[in-house]
Design brief:
Layout: H1 8-19, H2 22-34, H3 41-49
Length: 69
């Protein structure tokens, strides 16, 4: 395989970042908003402990019965 091959998408992204150098800064800021967070260990432990067990098959396993008059 040729090592000098560069895909069209890679070339496009490189050119886009050269034309707009603020893109990477914006990406880092956007990532910091939603992903790069320090988690409080106590809150995470409480979240993990609050899981409610589910039935193995939720659909039709225990259907309520109705009286037919």
């Amino acid at each position: 395989m040729l090592r000098s091959y560069v895909s069209d998408i890679t070339r496009f992204l490189r050119e886009l970042k050269e034309q707009n150098p603020d893109i990477e800064r914006g990406q880092r800021e956007g990532r910091a908003i939603f992903w790069d967070k320090n988690l409080d260990p106590d809150i995470y432990r409480r979240y993990e402990a609050s899981d409610v067990p589910h039935q193995a098959y939720a659909y039709g396993s225990k259907l309520p019965t109705r009286k037919v008059e």
